[in-house]
């Protein structure tokens, strides 16, 4: 994924997002490039600049453990950011997140990425661990966002 991350796009028959009055509701976003049909699996799948911000070390033993959740978290938030921009909003408009993890042990690394997108006023949050996620066992995190964007 060397190009800018597209906004969230449905991978099946559902809407990626809907506006209801001043509210924007995003479906759960996972780290998939819907155009290429490719799941983000690590640092190699995100732009070089993002790798550096996220802590890419170049050490295989570190990057193979941390890279998947860091890269997926970055792509998810970039898709949310892009989708909200398409809807006329920004990350500052997000007031609620629901975060689904395959393994809650990934939460600390995910949270490090989340702080980049919500440095001052984090949204209210729900965090849950689930037994599996679609479309593949390689998906580590899925995030739903709700934003308030006055018309």
Question: How would you describe this protein?
Answer:
The chain has about 150 residues and is an alpha+beta fold. The protein has a single domain, classed as RutC-like (60s Ribosomal Protein L30, Chain: A, 2-Layer Sandwich). The chain has 3 helices and 7 strands, in the order ββββααβαββ. The strands form 2 sheets. Strands 1-2-7-5-6 form a 5-stranded mixed β-sheet, covered by helices on one side. Strands 3-4 form a two-stranded antiparallel ribbon. Strand 1 and strand 2 form a beta hairpin. The model has no long low-confidence stretch (mean pLDDT about 90).
In short:
With 151 residues, the chain is α+β, with helices and mostly antiparallel strands.
Strand content: 15-25%
Mean pLDDT: 92
CATH class: Alpha Beta
State the fourth-level CATH superfamily.
RutC-like
Record the strand order, biggest sheet: 1-2-7-5-6
Overall geometry comes to: globular
The low-pLDDT segments are none
Gyration radius, rounded: 15 Å
Q: What is the string of SSEs from the N terminus onward?
A: EEEEHHEHEE
Keywords:
60s Ribosomal Protein L30, Chain: A; globular; 7 strands; alpha+beta; 151 residues; single chain
List the helices and strands and how they pair.
Elements: E1 17-20, E2 23-29, E3 32-33, E4 38-39, H1 48-54, H2 60-86, E5 94-101, H3 107-117, E6 124-129, E7 141-148
Parallel strand pairs: 5-6
Antiparallel strand pairs: 1-2, 2-7, 3-4, 5-7
Helix pairs in contact: 2-3
């Amino acid at each position: 994924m060397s190009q800018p991350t597209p906004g969230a796009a449905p991978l099946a028959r559902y809407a990626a997002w809907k506006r209801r009055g001043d509210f924007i509701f995003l479906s759960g976003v996972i780290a998939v490039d819907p155009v290429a049909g490719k799941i983000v699996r690590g640092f190699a799948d995100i732009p070089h600049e993002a790798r550096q911000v996220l802590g890419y070390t170049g050490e295989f033993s570190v990057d193979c453990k941390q890279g998947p959740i860091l890269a997926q978290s970055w792509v998810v938030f970039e898709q949310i950011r892009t989708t909200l921009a398409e809807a006329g909003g920004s990350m500052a408009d997000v007031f609620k997140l629901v975060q689904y993890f395959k393994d809650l042990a990934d939460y600390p690394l995910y949270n490090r990425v989340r702080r980049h997108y919500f440095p001052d006023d984090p949204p209210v949050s729900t965090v849950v661990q689930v037994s599996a996620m679609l479309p593949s066992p390689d998906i580590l995190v899925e995030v739903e966002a709700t934003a308030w964007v006055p018309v």
